[in-house]
Amino acid sequence: MLFTALGGGMSDASAAPGQGLSTAAATPDRARYDVVLRSDADGSHWTGRQRVSFRNGSDQPLREVYLRLWGNGEDKCGTPAAPSPVTVTRVRGGTPNHLGVNCTALRIALPRPLARNMRTSIAFDVSITVPDRNARFGHDGAYRFLGNALPVLAVHDTKGWHLDPYVSVGESFYALTSDFRVRLDHPSSLKVPATGHTRTFPGRAGRTVTLSVAERVRDFAWAAGPFRMATDTTAGGVLVKSYWAPDTPAAGVHVNRVDAVAAIDRFGREFGRYPYDEIDLVMTSQFGGGMEYPGLVLLGTTEEGGAAVHEVAHQWWYGIVGNDEYSSPWLDESFAQYANARFYGWDTRDCWSDVYWPDDNISLTGSMAYWSQHPGTYHLIYTAGPCALADLERTVGSGTMARLLKRYAKDHWYGVSTTADFKKAAQSMTDKDLAPFWEARHIW
């Protein structure tokens, strides 16, 4: 994101999340989502059925799963007059409990313990109402954005269940790669860009079905509206679909299209080939900054363009090379902004002169628990983080840095990485002791 400015051997609902699993394996994994949704006349409301099957990747029996209803993050549990935007009902395959974490987490007890490597599934009705705000889950006039709208499985690992609260500045999201097959039934007057490879076919009178299939992605997002549309293809064969509102500056749309096409192939050479065959750009003039999803990015667009390159870089740093965005936001935001700086050829030799560091106790590797309480310092993720990576490039040499990033991406392709993983990878590439380097740059 870029701003402008199951597990756990819990046998009952009272047990603390995180108890019971001792293995390093994250679970539930290898999830497959099958979703059928139908929209109202303007894409503001979607209802349908969602099924998710999954495997227990842990050595311990899986007795429960959690659904994250991230779309409720801003509105929490709502009010009787204005209920939460995302609701789940008629659960099959498990017994739902009360919503927790401000109505963003739903515990579902499985009917029997799920053994290692065994699969099961849950299914439920879902209702999604787009909030009245210009945000990643919101709208810009007639253009609806459905980022983090679909319920997705929470992750359990050695730290327990990850049931962190929602944050609006930054991201809380942590997900394993999954497969999605999503059928969106909507009025033919609406175009519906979406994660994955999409195709459309006629529905009932006046309606169209957009079918999207995505493999090995961490989330699924879509948009809906009377967009204009154009397509480009990168030299490497990736289809870039651009969607924009008519009042979006034409010059900015052009800049975003050109930059995105170039960035996809360049980052593919630097970090590993983009593994999907399509990416969608969704552009409006009033959206604030940009927001990344697998295969789809939302871009606020002016005459000068938008954050297309930064958001495309997120396809690798968060999308392909995953991380817990709540606990380690620098691993995606700083890496994406460093890639952005390299793309544009910015001179980073004096970049620290633009960094205001208010407190020597601040760690660049801090979690959103800190940054959300100190939003005035969150800019460090975008400023100090890329400076630190540029310093690392000068310390180990540009050729070594290039090899490091490509190897690091390969080693964590479709997986999850940590700060410790990156520091270990960097140290393996040089005889220099990097411990003083990390300490001097608040990477602890």
Secondary-structure blueprint:
Blueprint: E1 29-39, E2 45-55, E3 62-68, E4 86-92, E5 95-100, E6 105-114, E7 119-129, E8 137-140, E9 143-146, E10 152-153, E11 156-157, E12 160-161, E13 178-187, E14 197-202, E15 207-217, E16 222-224, E17 228-233, E18 239-244, H1 250-271, E19 278-284, E20 290-293, E21 296-300, H2 308-313, H3 330-344, H4 368-371, H5 380-396, H6 398-411, H7 419-427, H8 435-440
Parallel strand pairs: 1-13, 18-19, 19-21
Antiparallel strand pairs: 1-2, 2-7, 3-6, 3-10, 4-7, 5-6, 8-9, 9-16, 11-12, 13-15, 14-15, 17-18, 20-21
Helix pairs in contact: 3-5, 5-6
Organism: Streptomyces yaanensis
Domain Peptidase M1 membrane alanine aminopeptidase: 309-439
Biased composition (Gly residues): 1-10
Verbal overview:
This protein has 444 residues and is of the alpha+beta class. It folds into 3 domains: 7-219, Sandwich (Immunoglobulin-like); 227-315, Zincin-like, CATH 3.30.2010.30; 330-440, no CATH class. 21% of the residues lie in helices and 30% in strands. The strands form 5 sheets. The chain has a 7-stranded mixed beta sheet, with no helix packed on it. It has a 5-stranded mixed beta sheet with strand order 17-18-19-21-20. Helix 3 (330-344) packs across helix 5 (380-396). The radius of gyration is 21 Å and the shape is globular. It starts with 28 loop residues before the first strand and ends with a helix. The relative contact order is 0.11. Its EC number is 3.4.11.-. InterPro entries: M1_LTA4H, Peptidase_M1_dom, Peptidase_M4/M1_CTD_sf. Keywords: Aminopeptidase, Hydrolase, Protease. This is M1 family metallopeptidase.
